[in-house]
Write a structure and sequence with these properties.
The protein has 431 residues and is mainly α. The chain has 18 helices and 6 strands. The chain starts with a strand and ends in a 28-residue tail after the last helix. The structure holds acetyl coenzyme *A. The site of acetyl coenzyme *A has 18 residues, from helix 17. It comes from Profundibacterium mesophilum KAUST100406-0324.
């Protein structure tokens, strides 16, 4: 924990408090309110945690006004251009870029854990064929704690390490099998001579009757999607993982909780919702109608893929994703795809509209990732599972950091209670 170098004065009624403040290595100063209740008998009120730091962390930093995202200090655009997903995983997990030997060792360890316990196949088969792959992932990842008992003791650093590697290694297999099950095709086993992204694409698109030969441009685009989604500091799903973990829950249960949270359309579900919205718009001439709806206070409709809680500037991941979208569509020869035309025109119109400019609503990473995944042949229902595959390393890194923190306490927010005060029970015949 950073040392207190200044204080904040808080006065209310007859009470005057001096609260410690900390200066982070980047970002705004933080007021330490941990003793506020004990010393002042008040709580703070911050639904949505817009002004509350829930932990101290050294993993990821976002400057939303500048549109900057750093992993262990390295800008995301440099990582997307020069690095690759497994190297970024190493960086997030262990804090530094690996040497060549460390990377080889890490890749070997991940590769050795890509297969699932054979009995887990029966677990998949228990779901309905039309189950959403995210529902299957929540269930299967939660069930990992029933299959891998030897890595559930969170007090043992070795077991924590094994659980981390298992989750990163097995998540593509789980997502691919959820997909295969939904389309009625046989499960495809991982192949350890392929890189992480190529292996995932092959497990999704290969069938026993015809192998899937992975195009390096598609594999690179998939790897970039994984890299760009790897971590995003204390977002809703990561905070969910941390809150679940604060009770001492095992890593598989915590990551299952993160997947459940990611599923929501305001978070990881936005890429699916965005592509569905682009299809619903259908043709560029209908864009004004949807822009008008997004601006109408009486209409709950929002432009999916626009806006972000933290970025009040262009999402730096969206810039890289846009380049990738151009590369993939060029390779597949589908520049004239109607959904893409709607997306490009919608982006242009929204960025010129004063409503979106004033509210600092820019396209986010999900605006472009859906277009790429659609072009690769993924159904919209697979968009969020792919996000979950990528984010697993972020969840795991944050979980490991939290577990090793000697100050760890169970997460237990307070509330502003607005309900009835004490009243006596009334028997049913007298109500
Ligand atoms: N379309 C239209 N108006 C919007 C949008 C949008 N996409 N997003 C925000 N606004 C408006 C709100 O109506 C609100 O207007 P008001 O101040 O007049 O009431 C203002 O902008 C601020 O919105 P909030 O909901 O307070 O912003 P918040 O930070 O809580 O929400 C969120 C961020 C959830 C991402 C929001 O922008 C949204 O719903 N976007 C669409 C869903 C989406 O793309 N999510 C992906 C996020 S990225 C990720 O998870 C990887």
């Amino acid at each position: 924990m950073a040392q207190s170098d200044k204080t904040a004065k808080l006065s209310f009624g007859d009470t005057e408090l001096e609260l410690p403040m900390y200066s982070p290595s980047a970002g705004p100063d933080v007021i330490d309110i941990r003793k506020l209740y004990a010393q002042g008998n008040v709580f703070t009120y911050d639904p949505g945690f817009t002004s509350t730091a829930s932990c101290d962390s050294t993993i990821t930093f976002i400057d939303g006004d500048k549109g900057e995202l750093l992993h262990r200090g390295y800008p995301i655009d440099q990582l997307a251009a020069k690095s690759h997903f497994l190297e970024v995983c190493y960086l997030l997990l262990y804090g530094e870029l690996p040497t060549a030997e460390q990377l080889e060792d890490f890749e070997g360890r991940v590769t050795n854990h890509t297969m699932l316990h054979e009995q887990m196949m029966n677990f998949f088969r228990g779901f309905r064929r039309d189950a959403h792959p995210m529902a299957v992932m929540v269930g299967v990842v939660g069930a990992m704690s029933a299959f891998y008992h030897d890595s559930t003791d969170i007090g043992d650093p070795w077991q924590r390490e094994v659980a981390s590697i298992r989750l990163i290694a097995k998540m593509p297999t789980i997502a691919a099998w959820a997909y295969k099950y939904s389309v009625g095709q046989p499960f495809v086993y991982p192949r350890n001579d392929l890189d992480y992204a190529s292996n995932f694409l092959r497990m999704c698109f290969s069938v026993p009757a015809e192998d899937y030969v992975v195009d390096p441009i598609l594999s690179r685009a998939m790897d970039r999607i994984f890299t760009l989604h790897a971590d995003h500091e204390q977002n809703a799903s990561t905070s969910t993982v941390r809150l679940a973990s604060s009770s001492g829950a095992n890593p598989f249960a915590c990551i299952a909780a993160g997947i459940a949270c990611l599923w929501g359309p305001a978070h990881g579900g936005a890429n699916q919702a965005c592509l569905e919205m682009l299809r619903e718009i259908g043709t560029p001439d209908r864009i004004p109608e949807f822009i008008a709806r997004a601006k109408d206070k009486n209409d709950p409709f929002r432009l999916m893929g626009f806006g972000h809680r933290v970025y009040k500037n262009f999402d730096p991941r969206a810039k890289v994703m846009k380049e990738s979208a151009d590369e993939v569509l060029d390779l597949l020869g589908i520049e004239n795809n109607p959904t893409l035309q709607v997306a490009k025109e919608l982006e242009r119109v929204a960025l010129e509209d004063p409503y979106f400019a004033e509210k600092k609503l820019y396209p986010n990473v999900d605006f472009y990732s859906g277009i790429i995944l659609d072009a690769m042949g993924f159904p919209t229902s697979m968009f969020t599972p792919i996000f979950a595959v990528a984010r697993t390393v972020g969840w795991i890194s944050q979980w490991k950091e939290q577990i090793s923190d000697p100050q760890l306490r169970i997460g237990r927010p307070r509330q502003l209670y607005q309900g009835a005060t004490t009243r006596d029970y009334v028997d049913v015949e007298n109500r």
